């Protein structure tokens, strides 16, 4: 009986991972997948009409696949197999690879349960790790944890039939492995282009932090310095036609600066944030120069439509909406739209100890931080009797809300927002809408505040959104409201039950830390780009470590001697070494001098545009 | 063996302009010999200098290739450099002269094991240093080129050796001579005119239409055979010119290596071209030559270093323009006409007089009594300033041998105006000096960058008030940053020392000008100057 095999296999899995065993047990469906018998007699699964193994001889197919992988037993790599199928290829792999060096990732828990039911008990040795039903980013994080050491090389093995079944998942996972491996050699050089102002600007800073933390070399082209200039141009004339021409001229100029900088620093990727000054011409030019381009549109695709002019020219387009919007993107010339929700930066959005003065300034029972959109003005009028505070800008002519409006509607910076989240008992997070009177019943994406409040370990009530349950356990990690009455009732309830608030908020914070940071998002973004572009590698082929340079030198050589002091520093650039030598004291050795000279020549080459 | 090593990692024109300095060094080097490091592809050209005992090739392209691999971290470039330093070790240079003004070359020579360094050198303690007064003077020219009255070759010679004598004409290898004769035999029996239509900057290019007009005139008036020279990038323009010349043009653009280029120029009767490497090569070979100086090119800076060479410049107040100005309407290109150039060529071939042409300023190069190149002929108004500074710089660096009357054609009125400005500048400098002292006393912990900042703020104010003093104030800035006396001094000490030197130099200038003004009335000065000029002109005509 297959189900007997399932329990036997699950018992072994439960010994090391009880949660996984539970998931597989729950996912098991005797009718899924359809199982056929190959001509050679083996059972083969069929999912979405796709056979995951050869219908003639799956074992012979697995042997052939194995040969094509060209693996060696003693290369000390960690092998990640994408797709378990019915495991015939796993059998072949284990003839060469020690089980402790194999990690199998399977997207489909039902399929993973079926293979355990259909294959003999113990067909997966205990030391083989199995990751099932996780996102590509979560899978990668677990893989890293399972690696014997930080410096292990991870080798991704693709089971082609599984990849064709869930291409986005496996391509992204493969891409993440590849992109993160480059960080051992300095990573990708990324030029991040910020907008001049607006909500995308602070998110650009978080993205910049995240990319650098992941080990890539990200430079922020911070266009906020041009904001006063833009305002100045707008003030020059009231003629709309002239204003528009001036705006367009400024955008063209700033877009040109993107090309100039990208070429100057030899960027591997130019990543534009929403509202950043990228134009089709510049995107075309960057592509021609062999530089990958990406754009993260962290705004409502339905309301702002400038994306239509950009998508045909951006190689990798990311949006915070999916479904019907993905179709719209495709119609407008984006063949592979990507969904990438917003997130939080735990270095900025975190629980804080505030002073008494800060508590009295920022604290309160109920608060909202955000701009004065039409729906909020209507909705919040119903909360004024609940010690309600409104923080944020664009609340001109506040009417009855004036009593709740703090700092006369000044813009609130990131630091103060965090203070408010931390000191408010209930943060009301109503997503904006320009045309609904209260809650947008069709609202889908999550605004950054959803993640930021949660990351602070603060309690929030959020209007119900289509994508909310994908990111949080609604009711357990986050509490929603569907109407003003609903909102009022919950405010009253949670004000009276502080322990509930604290527990819920704590779980929400944990969820953000494990799944919704900008580092998670950037892992995914680079994974998608690296996975879709197999030949995308950092220009210059990456950077060596001192240890590697020493290994390549004769023992006792002068260069090996110089490199000794750079051990354990990770990947090195010529500039790193030169600047360290320059800081030193005493006589320069000939080799040190030559390194300085070489770096000087490199600088000259860069200045002259020949490098 | 201990010799002299010259760093000459530049283009054709720069290397050729170093040839006289090689000759000066050879005289002072003794048995050790003179060696030069040049770009690999210019080794054969450098070997044409009879003053060099050896040439080391530097393969910049190969080094660049190593830097492209793994962002330079393959470190293969180290072995390229190691090879060069091993060759240098064999020379054991007693003296190193850096005649290339790049940060790379200055760092390069700081790693050569030697006793004496000249030119721009990197010092680990004090940063970039300029060894020798003339090196510092050269750097002041970068900001105050409109005040310069010295030819670059003379400055290089002063940096390299100080003492000067006759310099050698380059040896054109037999193979290059044969190549040239073989190519040019089609013009046997006719005047052969070498023309290089290109230059290293687009703004220095005289237009192809102008060249066409000039060539037509030279063919019709002289029956000349024209040889077009240049690089691949000029091949298209040249081929178009050649196509319409009725077989009177030979287009060799992009076909000659530097040595063959020398051979071809040497076979011709005269060379005409923009300020370019080919022009300087022609001058070094002693060919009669006519140089066209457009945009930022200035005849005072880079006239062909050859007696009798003729320069043509536009007669425009904006000329020479700054390197940093991107001119969109180069009037200078229209100011010089084909007729002016063609007739100047005829003068250079001793066929006609050197006549005036509207829109042009023509000058003839000659060597003065000290062996430095000077220019005579048509002067522009700002030439007074150049000539005065030519004298004053001599005074500053070499007070014993200075004769202010070596500045002919500087009007007495100009002397007077210049003299009147010295006093207020000096007072302001003394004030600045006091302020610096106060700053130091009040803020002992101010770091050197802050000290430099205060000077950097004050100096542009002074320069905008007294632009005619630019060279001496720039010299002061160079003294602040580096110099022979800089070693061991802290940054504030260096600033004060430089201030002392500056005031001393002002005093020197003031004293000499004052003596001159005291002893002679303005009319007397004018009379003396005019007499001097007449004498100089007569002498040059005789010669």
From TrEMBL, chain A:
Residues 377-526 form the Spore protein YkvP/CgeB glycosyl transferase-like domain. Pfam families: Glyco_trans_1_2. This is Spore protein YkvP/CgeB glycosyl transferase-like domain-containing protein.
Automatic annotation (TrEMBL), chain B:
GO terms for biological process: lipopolysaccharide core region biosynthetic process. Keywords: Glycosyltransferase, Transferase. One of its GO terms (cellular component) is cytosol. It comes from candidate division LCP-89 bacterium B3_LCP. PANTHER family: ADP-HEPTOSE--LPS HEPTOSYLTRANSFERASE 2 (PTHR30160:SF7), TETRAACYLDISACCHARIDE 4'-KINASE-RELATED (PTHR30160). This is Glycosyltransferase family 9 protein. GO terms for molecular function: ADP-heptose-lipopolysaccharide heptosyltransferase activity. It holds the Pfam family Glyco_transf_9. The keyword DNA repair does not apply. Gene3D superfamilies: Glycogen Phosphorylase B. The lineage of its organism: Bacteria, Pseudomonadati, Bacteria division LCP-89.
């Amino acid at each position: 009986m297959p189900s007997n095999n399932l329990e036997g296999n699950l018992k072994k899995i439960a010994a090391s991972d009880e949660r996984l065993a539970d998931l597989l047990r729950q996912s098991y469906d005797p009718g899924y997948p359809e199982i056929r018998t190959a001509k050679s007699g083996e059972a083969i699964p069929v999912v979405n009409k796709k056979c995951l193994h050869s219908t003639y001889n799956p074992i012979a197919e697995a042997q052939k696949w194995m040969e094509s992988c060209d693996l060696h037993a003693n290369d000390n790599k960690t092998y990640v197999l994408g797709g378990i199928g019915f495991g015939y290829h796993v059998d072949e792999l284990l003839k060469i690879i020690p089980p402790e060096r194999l990690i199998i990732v399977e997207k489909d828990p039902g399929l993973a349960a079926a293979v355990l039911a259909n294959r003999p008990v113990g067909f997966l040795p205990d030391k083989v790790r199995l990751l099932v039903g996780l996102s590509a980013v979560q899978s990668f994080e677990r893989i890293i944890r399972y690696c014997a050491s930080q410096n292990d090389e991870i080798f991704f093995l693709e089971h082609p039939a599984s990849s064709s079944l869930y291409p986005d998942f496996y391509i992204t996972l493969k891409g993440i492995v590849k992109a993160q491996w480059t960080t051992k050699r300095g990573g990708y050089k990324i030029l991040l282009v910020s907008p001049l102002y607006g909500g995308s600007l602070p998110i650009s800073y978080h993205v910049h932090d995240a990319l650098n933390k992941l080990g890539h070399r990200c430079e922020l082209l911070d266009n906020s310095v041009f904001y006063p200039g833009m305002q100045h141009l707008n003030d020059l004339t009231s003629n709309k036609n002239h204003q528009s021409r001036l705006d367009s001229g400024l955008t063209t100029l700033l877009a040109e600066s993107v090309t100039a900088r990208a070429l100057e620093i030899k960027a591997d990727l130019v990543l534009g944030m929403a509202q950043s000054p990228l134009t089709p011409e510049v995107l075309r030019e960057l592509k021609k120069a062999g530089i990958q381009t990406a754009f993260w549109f962290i705004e409502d695709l339905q309301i702002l439509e400038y994306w239509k002019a950009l998508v045909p020219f951006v190689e990798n387009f990311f949006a915070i909406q999916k479904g019907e919007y993905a179709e719209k993107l495709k119609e407008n010339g984006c063949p592979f739209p990507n969904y990438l929700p917003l997130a939080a930066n735990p270095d900025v959005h975190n629980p804080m100890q505030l002073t008494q003065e800060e508590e009295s300034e920022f604290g309160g029972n109920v608060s909202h931080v955000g701009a004065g959109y039409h729906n909020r003005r209507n909705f919040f009028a119903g909360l004024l009797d609940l010690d309600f505070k409104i923080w944020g800008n664009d609340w001109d002519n506040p009417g009855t809300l004036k009593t709740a409006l703090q700092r006369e509607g000044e813009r609130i910076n990131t630091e103060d927002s965090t203070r408010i989240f931390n000191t408010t008992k209930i943060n009301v997070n109503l997503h904006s809408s320009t045309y609904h009177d209260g809650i947008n019943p069709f609202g889908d994406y999550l605004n950054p505040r959803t993640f930021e409040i949660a990351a602070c370990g603060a309690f929030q009530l959020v209007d119900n959104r289509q994508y909310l349950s994908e990111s949080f356990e609604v009711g357990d990690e986050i509490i929603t409201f569907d109407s003003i009455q609903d909102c009022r009732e919950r405010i009253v309830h949670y004000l009276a039950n502080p322990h509930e608030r604290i527990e819920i908020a704590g779980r929400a914070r944990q969820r953000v830390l494990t799944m919704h940071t900008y580092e998670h998002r950037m892992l995914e973004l680079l994974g998608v780009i690296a996975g879709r572009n197999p030949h995308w590698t950092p220009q210059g082929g990456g950077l060596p470590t001192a240890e590697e340079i020493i290994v390549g030198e004769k023992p006792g050589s002068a260069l090996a001697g110089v490199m000794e002091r750079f051990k354990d520093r990770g990947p090195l650039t010529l500039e790193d070494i030169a600047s360290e030598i320059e800081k030193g004291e005493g006589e320069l050795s000939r080799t040190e001098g030559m390194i300085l000279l070489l770096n000087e020549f490199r600088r000259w080459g860069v200045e002259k545009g020949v490098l | 063996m201990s010799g002299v090593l010259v760093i000459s990692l530049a283009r054709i024109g720069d290397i050729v302009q170093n040839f006289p300095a090689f000759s000066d060094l050879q005289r002072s080097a003794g048995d050790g010999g003179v060696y030069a490091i040049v770009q690999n592809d210019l080794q054969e050209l450098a070997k044409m200098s009879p003053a060099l005992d050896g040439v080391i090739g530097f393969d910049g392209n190969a080094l660049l290739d190593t830097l492209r691999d793994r962002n330079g971290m393959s470190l293969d470039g180290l072995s390229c450099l190691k090879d060069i330093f091993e060759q240098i070790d064999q020379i054991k240079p007693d003296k190193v002269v850096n005649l290339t003004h790049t940060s790379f070359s200055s760092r390069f020579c700081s790693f050569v094991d030697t006793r004496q360094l000249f030119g721009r050198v990197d010092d680990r303690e004090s940063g970039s240093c300029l060894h020798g007064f003339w090196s510092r003077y050269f750097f002041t020219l970068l900001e105050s080129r409109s005040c310069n009255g010295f030819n670059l070759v003379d400055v290089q010679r002063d940096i390299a050796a100080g003492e000067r004598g006759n310099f050698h004409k380059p040896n054109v290898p037999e193979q290059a001579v044969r190549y040239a004769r073989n190519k040019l035999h089609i013009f046997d029996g006719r005047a052969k005119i070498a023309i290089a239509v290109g230059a290293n900057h687009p703004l220095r290019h005289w237009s192809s239409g102008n060249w066409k007009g000039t060539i037509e005139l030279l063919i019709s008036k002289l029956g000349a055979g024209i040889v077009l020279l240049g690089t691949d990038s000029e091949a298209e323009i040249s081929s178009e010119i050649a196509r319409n010349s009725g077989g009177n043009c030979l287009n060799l653009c992009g076909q000659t290596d530097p040595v063959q280029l020398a051979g071809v120029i040497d076979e011709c009767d005269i060379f005409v071209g923009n300020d370019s490497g080919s022009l300087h090569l022609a001058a070094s070979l002693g060919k009669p030559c006519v140089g066209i100086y457009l945009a930022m090119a200035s005849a005072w800076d880079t006239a062909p270093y050859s007696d009798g060479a003729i320069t043509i410049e536009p007669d425009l107040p904006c000329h020479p323009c700054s390197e940093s100005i991107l001119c969109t309407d180069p009037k200078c290109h229209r100011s010089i006409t084909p007729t002016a150039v063609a007739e100047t060529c005829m003068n250079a071939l001793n066929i006609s007089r050197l006549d005036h042409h509207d829109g042009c300023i023509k000058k003839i190069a000659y060597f003065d009594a000290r062996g430095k190149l000077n220019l005579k002929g048509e002067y522009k108004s700002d030439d007074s300033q150049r000539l005065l500074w030519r004298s004053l710089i001599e005074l500053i660096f070499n007070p014993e041998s200075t004769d202010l009357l070596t500045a002919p054609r500087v009007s007495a009125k100009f002397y007077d105006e210049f003299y009147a400005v010295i006093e207020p500048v000096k007072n302001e400098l003394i004030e600045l000096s006091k302020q610096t002292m106060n700053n130091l006393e009040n803020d002992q912990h101010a770091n050197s960058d802050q000290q430099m900042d205060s000077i950097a703020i004050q100096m542009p104010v002074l320069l905008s008030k007294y632009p005619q003093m630019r060279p001496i104030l720039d010299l002061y800035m160079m003294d602040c940053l580096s110099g022979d006396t800089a070693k061991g001094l802290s940054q504030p000490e260096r600033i004060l020392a430089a201030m002392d030197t500056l005031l001393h130099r002002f005093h020197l200038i003031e004293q000499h000008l004052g003596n001159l003004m005291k002893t002679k009335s303005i009319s007397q000065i004018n009379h003396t100057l005019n007499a001097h000029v007449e004498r100089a002109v007569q002498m040059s005509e005789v010669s």
